[in-house]
Amino acid sequence: MTATMSDGIGSVPRSTVVATAGDYKSDQEVRWCPGCGDYIVLNTVQAFLPTLGLRRENLVFVSGIGCSSRFPYYLDTYGMHSIHGRAPTIATGMAVARPDLSVWVVTGDGDALSIGGNHLIHALRRNVNLTILLFNNRVYGLTKGQYSPTSTAGTITKSTPMGSVDAPLDPVSLALGAEATFVGRALDSDRAGLTEVLAPPPATAGPPWSRSTRTARSSTLVRSTTSRRRTPPRTASSGCGPGNRSGSAAPTSSA
Amino acid sequence: MHIADHDILTPGDHPDVLVAMNPAALRANLGDVPATATIIVDVDEFTGRNLARAGYTSDPLTDGTLAAHEVHEVAMTSLTRGAVAEAGLGKKGAERCRNMFALGLLFFMYGRAAELTETFLRAKFAEDRGVADANVLAFRAGWNYGETTEAFATVRVAPAVLPSGTYRQITGNTALAYGLVAAGERAQLPVLFGAYPITPASDVLHELTKHKNFGVLTVQAEDEIAAVGAALGASFAGALGITATSGPGLALKAETIGLGVMTELPLVVIDVQRGGPSTGLPTKTEQADLLQALHGRNGESPVPVVAPRSPADCFDTALEAARIALAYRTPVLLLSDGAIANGSEPWLLPEIEELPDLRVAFATTPNTPDGSTGFWPYRRDPETLARDWAVPGTPGLAHRIGGLEKTDGSGEISYDAANHDHMVRLRRRKVDGITVPDVAVDDPDDRADVLVLGWGSTYGPIGAACRRIRRAGGSVAQAHLRHLNPLPANLGEVLARYHRVVLPEMNLGQLASVLRARYLTDIRSVTKVAGMPFTVEELQAAITTSIEEIVPA
Ligand SMILES: Cc1ncc(C[n+]2csc(CCOP(=O)(O)OP(=O)(O)O)c2C)c(N)n1
Ligand code: SF4
Ligand SMILES: [Mg+2]
Asked: What percent of chain A has pLDDT over 90?
């Protein structure tokens, strides 16, 4: 790759006006199941972004496919809801072509660790200027609750009626193995913890959060376990699918 | 090597001279050599051991194998060793110069000017004076050998009359790379080229890595999906995203190309075709990815397709692909093939300022119908149907796009049946409406009953076959398609004008089936999938048969 290695968000233009969480809310109706942990992550991110002090138009959120990947629609930034598992590739092109952008990937455990596993490890090791938020609910939410690469062995779902047999992947081990420059995790029920892992880590946040070396990028891997999913689903009906969705606010789409 | 007093269309079916540097080379190439050809061998290499290694049980130089040929036994190894002695190379290094001895001899036979070649050798080996001297000495020794032995017939080939200007030899892959660099220059956009190595496309990546000074970024991705993803992401960010691969890689890119169709972003996808299916014949040529290019995606997913016809034409075709991608905000597929990629021909260097202007205007102000704030990503130019393109960093125009169906204009996600029907037809209409030049027909005496139509690398052998038929007094028309989707507007009328249309393709008749379905016209398919281009003879015979059926000879 001929692009210069990233220097965190130091090359992203800063805003002269102070933004609010409201500035980052799009006009789209949020359509996750009531009680879904994704709401808390969204609210936390919306409240956090103004603290970066960046120009809002220089932020891009790219997602794959899944419930979590609807995220970009709810943020008033540039964004792309791409295809299943491939968001890190698209984000890599954006970040390489435009060092003045702060590029974020929003992905799920299926999106990032199953279909997109290869892209994830290469995005991490390549150290392009990206921040990746992985929403780990240990299930394929959007496709109605099949087990995922992070489901614990024995998880009973529609596709594993006798319980899943394969061992789960630990996203943090994977990210550390790929030598991501920053890895953090938090629970969705812990807003302070979520905010903490979103913030650029001190090692990469020297004024103004930029360094010219390889370690200067902030790659945040947030492992967010929804409060409803803190223990893996044990039965098909307790999965993150329609059987568990209440009423009319359930997502109206599948992908 | 092929020398002529006119532009050369193919490497030629059969040589007039074969230089065999050893028995194995003789054995491998003798099948292509007609009885009229002269054979020159390095007799020093025809030892018992080398003959046995090449699988000869008796010496072809004495057993009558070459009886029909004029054979020259030249002790090239020892003559070369003697000639380069003063350069002071070791025995091995000296013997390596034999190929220059052979070249010098051929230059004498064909009366070629030696100066350029000597200058080239001096420049190529500028680092090592001894090697440079030795190569030049061997080259001159070969020439002198031809002159003093008086054993070789000499042939004069007059210089070709070609448009004046500076020419260089160029391969198809290099010309593609240069075309992409030029496209970035003419669009005044950075180019992001994503690729995963694959034969025979890798040289495009290799070449582009040298042009960072022109704003070309290359990403060697983890696979073909990532390569096209990076290109598409770069396009969203306001660059010209490009990716190149071969057939197996195109299969992997399909879903992302579909995303490009849906998000209506510029993207150039190059497929340097090789023999398929699956891993197939990586180093051999074929044109069997046409239907994959046209249709190989889920849903109604129309994509413009262009194809260069020769190595040098890759330059212009790359610019054309970029023009369509940028002007219409669409993925464009460019189909080259192994024969073009590695083949080379003289290329007249263009004047950069005379190349097409590819600049695009990004959206910079709100475009909502009520003129208020905000951005409608699917608002279109009424003429081209290209959507407005706002790039990140532009204040006030933040928007989200993606693979889900969306409302025309506003770009809001929509599951509405009527809207989907409208959008599917609109995406098709946009591609159908791309302006492409009419196809030109070469019908010199205007009397031809038969039209030979082609696309891609068959241009060379088709052109050479038509020349031969005309020289023999026959009439035949030739037309060659650069645009395979959309097809030129005049193509239906052109096809209807002839009694018979012959369409040679290196596949089982893919374009023929497209044209039959589109124009309800019969097409005579001539197919070959042997990993090799058509020979001129093969096509001459096939075309002549078609002509004679209509006009009994
Ligand atoms: C190529 C492809 N294969 C399969 C799907 C179907 N699909 C959509 S989302 C998904 C799994 C999503 O799981 P995860 O990433 O964990 O997201 P969640 O919904 O749990 O947030 C699958 C299998 C698809 N959209 N595309
Ligand atoms: S299915 Fe699960 S992940 Fe999807 S919105 Fe509902 S609770 Fe959230
Ligand atoms: Mg999930």
From this structure: 70
Alpha helices in B110-220 (DSSP H): 115-124, 129-149, 172-187, 202-208
Element (H, E) at B51: helix B48-53
**Beta carbons within 8 Å of A18's beta carbon, 6+ residues apart:** A50, A53
Q: State the number of CA atoms in the 13 A half-sphere of A179 facing the CB.
A: 7
Burial of B501 per CB tally in 10 Å (0-12, 13-18, 19+): buried
Integer-rounded Cα radius of gyration of chain A: 18
- Contacts B222 to A, Cβ<8 Å: 118-119, 122
For chain B, the domains span 17-149, 168-354, 361-435, 441-549
Count interface pairs A-B at CB distance under 8 A.
152
Least confident of A14-18, B241-245, B540-544: A14-18
Which of B245, B251, B182 shows the shortest CA–CA distance to B216? B182
Q: Which residues have CB atoms below 5 A from the ion given as ligand 3?
A: A 108-109, 137, 141
pLDDT on residue A7:
52
- How does pLDDT run across A44-64, given as a tens digit for each residue? 999 999 999 999 999 999 999
Q: Which residues of B11-50 are buried (b: 16+ CB within 10 A; e: fewer)?
A: ebbebebbbbbbbbbbbeebeebeeebbbbbbbbbbeeee
Under DSSP, the state recorded for A114 is: I
Could you tell me whether strands A78-81 and B400-402 are parallel, antiparallel, or unpaired per DSSP bridges? parallel
- Reported as a single tens digit per residue, the pLDDT across A1-15 is 233 334 567 899 999
CA B357 to the chain's CA centroid: 23
Q: Which residues of B touch A101 (CB under 8 A)?
A: 237, 392-393
Helices (H), B296-405: 313-328, 338-342
Q: How far is B360 from chain A (nearest CA, A)?
A: 17
pTM of the model: 0.91
Residues of A with CB under 8 A from a CB of B: 1-3, 26, 55-60, 62, 65, 72-73, 76-83, 86, 88-98, 100-101, 118-119, 122, 252-253, 255
Cα A251 to ligand 2 centroid, rounded to whole Å = 8
Cα-based distances in Å from B23 to B40, B49, B105: 12, 10, 20
| pLDDT tens string B217-226 | 999 999 999 9
- Verify whether the Cβ–Cβ distance B392 to A253 is below 8 Å: no
For ligand 2, atom 2: residue with the closest CA? A240
- A93 and B192 in contact by Cβ < 8 A? yes
Q: Which residue owns the Cα nearest ligand 1 atom 25?
A: A255
- Give me the interface pTM, i.e. the ipTM: 0.91
Q: What residue has token string 């212009």?
A: B316
Which pLDDT tens digit goes with each residue over B416-439?
999 999 999 999 999 999 999 999
Domain B441-549 has CATH 3.40.50.720: no
Identify the residue among A98, A115, A129 best suited for mutation to test binding to B, counting B beta carbons within 10 A and taking the highest: A98
Nearest CA to ligand 1 atom 17: A66
Whole-angstrom distance, CA of residue A201 vs CA of residue A205: 6
Q: What is the pLDDT of residue A199?
A: 84
Q: What is the pLDDT of residues B462-488, one digit of tens each?
A: 999 999 999 999 999 999 999 999 999
- Residue in B229, B255, B395 closest to A57 by CB: B395
Contacts of B415 in chain A (CB under 8 A): 252-253
In this predicted model, what pLDDT tens digit does every residue of A180-208 receive, in sequence order? 988 999 999 899 999 999 986 554 433 33
CATH number of B168-354: 3.40.50.970
Q: Which token pair is A97?
A: 């072509």
Within this chain, domains B168-354 and B441-549 share the same CATH topology: yes
Average pLDDT over all residues of chain A: 81
